Amino acid sequence: MAEEQELLSLAQQWAPLFKLMGDRTRLSLLLAMHHRGPGEATVSELAETVGVSLPTASAALVNLAENNIVESFKEGRVTRYRLVDEATHKLLHHLGGTHAHS
Predict the structure, then answer these.
(1) Which residues of 72-91 are buried (b: 16+ CB within 10 A; e: fewer)?
(2) pLDDT, tens digit, for every residue of 8-49?
(3) Percent of the chain having pLDDT more than 70?
(4) Phi and psi for 23 in degrees, rounded to 5?
(5) Domain 2-94, CATH 3.20.20.150 — does that match?
(6) Which of 42, 80, 82, 87 is the most exposed place for a label (fewest CB within 10 A)?
(7) Whole-number CA gyration radius for the chain
(8) How far lies 33's CA from each of 4, 5, 8, 26, 36, in Å?
(9) What is the DSSP letter of 85?
(10) Which residues form the HTH arsR-type domain (predicted)?
C-alpha cells in the first residue's frame, strides 16, 4: 500500500512537467535551449531553430516561464530565455537531449 501511494505521489509530482513537455513546440524549444548549453537565447533565435513563428515561440516560452521551467530577462529591447529547472534539464538528458559542446 505504501509503495502504491509513493508511485501515485510520483505521478502527481511529474504530471505537470509532462503536460508542458507534451506540446511539440514547447518540447522543441526546451530541447533547443538545452542543446545550446547554459547560455541564453532570444525568442527569434529559438523560433528559427525550431521552425515556428515568433508569436508561437513567444507564447510557448511565456508558458514555460510562468511554470518556472525557463527564465526570461530583458537585454535592452531583446528578451532572452534560459532553462532554469534542474528536473527538466535532467529529464531532457534522459530523452536523449544533448549539449552542443558534448
Answers:
(1) beeeeeebbbebebeebbeb
(2) 888 898 898 889 889 999 999 999 999 887 778 999 999 999
(3) 96
(4) -90, 125
(5) no
(6) 87
(7) 15
(8) 35, 35, 31, 11, 5
(9) -
(10) 8-102
